[in-house]
Amino acid sequence: MSVFVLGIDIGTTSVKAVLLETGSRVVSDSHVLAALCDIPDSSGLKLQEQDPGRIIDALNRCVSFLPRDKLKNVCRIGLSGQMHGVLFWKGRSGCDWSVGDFFTVRDVSQLITWQDGRCSSSFLSSLPKPESHLSIATGFGCATIFWYTKHRPEFLQDFTAAGTIQDYVVSMLCGLDGCKMTAQNAASWGFFNTSTNQWNIDILKSAGFPLHLLPHPVCSGGLAGQTCSEWHGVPAGTPVGAALGDFQCSVYSCMSVRTDAVLNISTSAQLTYAMPTDFKPAESPQPASSISYFPYFDGSYLAVAASLNGGNVLATLVKMLSAWMEELGVELSNSCLYEKLIHCGLNQENTDLMLSPTILGERHNPLHLGQVTNISTSNLSLGHVTRALCRGVLDNITSMMPAESLQQAGISRIIGTGSALARNKVFRQEMERAFTQPVTYRPNADSAIGVALVLCDRLE
Question: How far is the C-alpha of 205 from the C-alpha of 209, rounded, in Å?
Answer without folding.
Answer: 6
